[in-house]
Design a protein that fits this description.
The chain is α/β, with parallel strands linked by helices. The protein has ten helices and ten strands.
Length: 249
């Protein structure tokens, strides 16, 4: 379990996160949802260990990791821009992290990920020969071969459209289930969060506006901000979310 207790973070005297409390069970997919500038990326960076909290504690499986350096937490992130190496082919990108410790994943496990993510036919291609969805799958594979304790995804679908986006969503769900991998996603897109996650945390102005299951948030928003934020997106994309949760807009 990942647990955040009374997390606070400020930059230059401006409060970014204020008294964040959160519990995420092993194997869950949780989305951190909110408008630009609400603090969601800062929260992801705090969990990763890329930045430090001003106050509060972060615990993983009962151990206080608040002051544990990023490289010792065992978490891993897929960035929005994929951060792939253009001078390496797909296979070398996937296995790059195994160069210093090849025992993290066996060759069989690497092959399993390649099959799971549908990358077999692309292994010898250059990165610039790939589509956005293919690059996202390579980035996922490269991260997963390192067997992270928690998978963090920063706007993983923002550059994708239509069928490709739906395909990657299904891949993320499959990975979380098959590997029992706790997955935390930062997104500004309610449709993405509501259709992908077990639980959704909505942040506004540095605080938690609501945390719950997708259907709870859609059917019983806890305040005016959540209601306006979600219903606005339901109206825009109601064909997808309406059919899933059967709510009137």
């Amino acid at each position: 379990m990942l647990k955040l207790e009374h997390i606070k973070k400020s930059y230059d005297g401006t409060t970014i996160l204020n008294d964040i409390n959160l519990e995420i069970e092993d194997g869950e997919i949780v989305s951190i949802l909110g408008p630009s500038g609400c603090g969601k990326t800062t929260l992801l960076n705090l969990i990763l260990g890329l930045t430090d909290a001003d106050q509060g504690r972060i615990l993983f499986d009962g151990e206080d990791i608040t002051d544990t350096p990023m490289e010792k937490r065992g978490f891993n992130i897929v960035f929005q821009d994929y951060a792939l190496f253009p001078n390496l082919n797909v296979y070398k990108n996937i296995t790059y992290g195994l160069r210093n410790d090849p025992n993290i994943s066996t060759k069989e496990e690497v092959e399993e990920l390649i099959e799971l993510l549908g990358l077999r036919e692309h292994l010898n291609k250059r990165i610039d020969q790939l589509s956005g969805g293919q690059k996202q799958r390579v980035a996922l594979a490269r991260t997963l071969v390192m067997k992270p304790k928690i998978l963090l995804l920063d706007e993983p679908l923002s550059a994708l459209d239509g069928v490709i986006k739906e395909s990657i969503k299904e891949k993320i769900k499959t990975i979380a289930k098959e590997f029992h991998l706790t997955t935390i996603i930062v997104t500004h897109d309610p449709e993405e969060a509501l259709t992908l996650s077990d639980h959704v945390m909505i942040i506004n102005k540095g605080g938690i506006s609501q945390y719950g299951k997708p259907e709870e948030i859609v059917k019983t928003p806890e305040n005016d901000f959540v209601k306006a934020f979600i219903l606005r997106q339901l109206e825009i994309k109601k064909n997808n979310i309406y059919s899933l949760f059967q709510v009137a807009v």
